Amino acid sequence: MLMCLSSQQSIIWVGGAVLRDHAGKFLFSCNEGLEGLPVPELAEAIAARSALTITRDKGFQKISLVSDCLSLVQRISSPVQDRSTTGMVIGDIKNLMTDFDSCSVKFSSRYLIVIAHNLARSPEALVCKFSADVIPEIIRDELNL
């Protein structure tokens, strides 16, 4: 399960993603600060696109993308071409999803994806980070480790 979320820190949006396997085991996390975005949904979409790209490049084939942004989930799920500000990124996400054997997108309220939320709100989140070997301190408690 790939959980994606964005959070605003001052004038910078931060995207965070956590990948867990079917049993809930931590596989990797990533986060990145994004400046100059006009709408929060665009930050969510960029976080999802980045997470899917990393997941594909790492060789995963069955993905469930989970976001707390209902409009993003609806736009990705829609067969209609999105012509909004976020549309190009939505198109990239749809194209990336075809690279997997199975890739679904689901909505979840924020409390269910608290791990990605904490990662995005981390003071260290303004620097692009990828972690596969060491679980970031900010999310260890939520992973029950």
From TrEMBL:
Name of the protein in its database record: Uncharacterized protein
Upper taxonomic lineage: Eukaryota, Viridiplantae, Streptophyta, Embryophyta, Tracheophyta
